[in-house]
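ARCHIVE CARD
Drawer: 12
Card no.: 0347
Subject: one protein chain, sequence and derived structure
Cross-reference: see card 0346
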Amino acid sequence: MKILELTKKIADKLSSVYDSEISQMYAWWILEEICEKKRAHLLAEKDFKLTESQEKKLKIWLEKLIQENMPLQYLIGYVNFCGVKILVRPPVLIPRPETEEIVLNLIEKLKPCKDKKLKVLDLCTGSGCIVIALSKAFPSFDFVATDISEAALYLAQENAELNELGNIEFVNSDVYENLPVDQRFDLIISNPPYIDPLVWDDLDLSVTEWEDEAALIAENHGLAIIERIVVGAKYYLQSGECFKGVPKIVLEIGFDQGPILKKLLESAGFVDVDIEKDLAGKDRSAVARL
């Protein structure tokens, strides 16, 4: 069977649970991982044939994807995030492209500070994708990453070790709860739970059946954790700025939370509040200075 025929066959099977674009993307992703070859190499093979073990693995993966709604990222075991390898496993939240976009934008904003000794706090770190990407980009910075989930922190520490990073301190904490009261940071970043519990049942089964609900939803229409982060931030942020325009706080938010976050941040004393949109044109992050 030719490689294009096989990818179409896989995509057709996946189309029962995914749209055509994702089915095609996943078909190639699956074959690249199973065969341990990039698409270009697979396309170059004239006589393509899966080995017996590869066929068995493909069958198992398709069953898990279609019948068990398992996310492909969990099957593969890792994702690429801002150029770093991030291990993933259930139920720790899988890094999303929208989060990656926020971090890439932040890296650009922080470049004027690259030689400074800044201290950064990553709240609700999950897999550690944000803090690890920032640590790779800014080895002179010091980082603290917190999460209420011990499973998430364990995975985040694994990811830090995988990427050979030694400038991150991991703390088991419910937001600021277990941080020293006299600790101060130059920047706080977070991808907190921000989904309204009322829409949980409307989410894809690959989310609700596999990922940690506590990492995704928050009371008060998804704002409960964000409010705690914003209100407490002034006690953990030090005054002054590295360079003009560099933010003091960066929060991932829901597409309908922009106006509320702008008011919340301003009422907490933040200035230059900006609600930034993602590539789909939806509100996705709140950025502000003190």
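Annotation on reverse: The chain has two domains: 3-68, 79-289. Residues 20-35 form the longest helix (16 residues).
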